[in-house]
Design brief:
- The chain is built from 1 helix and 11 strands.
- Strands 1, 2, 3, 4, 5, 6, 7, 8, 9, 10 and 11 form an 11-stranded antiparallel beta sheet that branches.
- The longest helix has 16 residues.
- The chain is elongated, with a radius of gyration of 18 Å.
- The chain is mainly beta.
Length: about 200
């Protein structure tokens, strides 16, 4: 998470130094392939689990989004398909264990353009689990196949169409099956991607 924050600060400085108008015509569409890093993390209720720390699982985020620019100059709508390697790492007994959770996510976002090329965004993201492993053991049968989360983020589009996008995506549903009040794990994720708008 510290690395993600440093990358955000560096990106913000770069964007502030070279801000240009990147708005598109009302009623137009763009398609944006995207690639970057995903940092999955663990949240929820898990006090009865016997580990003393948790760390993100770093992985790949790749996909594409379509964006529609409304007649309101500061508002657009977008939807996409993204593959993200989520999960987390835990430490117990001096050892590190990795829970891998790979999803096909479908982010649906409202984008608010607050400055030239700079957008704040919020939405909902259904996710579908395609792979789950605890270390080398397949544990997909122990996990919910559907995950609903709420992406919140920001993006900046340069005049040449290159776009940087940073999102935090807290989960709204539990990932473990038969979850109860004492053990409800959520698969959160943060992503930093670079894309190009056609």
């Amino acid at each position: 998470m510290k690395k993600m924050m440093m990358m955000l600060i560096m990106a913000t400085v770069a964007l502030t130094a070279s801000a240009q108008n990147a708005r598109h015509a009302a009623g137009s569409f763009t398609i944006q392939p995207m690639i970057g890093i995903a940092a999955g993390s663990l949240s929820g209720t898990y006090s009865d689990l016997e580990f003393n720390s948790k760390d993100p699982r770093a992985g790949l985020a790749i996909g594409a989004e379509a964006e529609y620019y409304t007649k309101t100059s500061w508002l657009s709508l977008s939807a996409g398909v993204m593959y993200a390697q989520q999960g987390w790492e835990t430490k117990a007994g001096g050892k590190t264990f990795t829970q891998k959770l790979d999803y096909i996510n479908i982010p649906v976002l409202v984008n608010f353009y607050v400055a030239k090329g700079f957008a704040l965004k919020i939405g909902l993201q259904p996710g579908f689990l395609i792979n789950a492993k605890y270390e080398s053991t397949d544990n997909k049968s122990d996990c919910e196949s559907f995950n609903l989360s709420m992406p919140i983020g920001l993006s900046y589009e340069f005049a040449n169409g290159i776009t940087l996008d940073l999102r935090g995506t807290p989960a709204l549903t539990a990932v473990n099956k038969n979850s109860n009040s004492d053990w409800k794990l959520r698969s959160d994720c943060s992503t930093l991607t670079i894309g190009y708008k056609f």
